[in-house]
Design brief:
2 helices; Alpha-Beta Plaits; about 100 residues
Length: about 100
């Protein structure tokens, strides 16, 4: 199992979405990019993503963090490129590095 920490930007275009909607946008982008993300075990499996503190609605940021676990090996630059292709305008991965 591999963990990659990503630094992302929440821009003006998406400043009015909630933290839950932000999480859904990332999960949708991960599925569309066909990344081998790890899932929890149990009745309702979910992606293993650890989020930083939630931003309030209406706030923008150039330095938020999330940690994503993967089943198979993924190179951080490849993860950054693949996710940025599928994230909505206003959300962007700035950096990705191994934990």
């Amino acid at each position: 199992m591999q963990k990659i920490k990503v630094k992302y930007k929440k821009g003006e275009e998406v400043k009015f979405i909630s933290h839950r909607d932000l999480m859904r946008a990332f999960q949708r982008a991960i599925r569309r990019a066909d990344l081998p993300v790890a899932y929890s075990q149990g009745f309702n499996p979910h992606m293993k993503i650890s989020w930083g503190n939630a931003l309030k609605v209406g706030a923008v940021s150039d330095g938020e963090f999330a940690e994503i676990q993967f089943e198979l090996w993924v190179k951080p630059p490849e993860l950054k490129d693949r996710l940025n292709r599928h994230l909505p305008k206003g959300l962007e991965i700035l950096e990705a590095f191994l934990v």
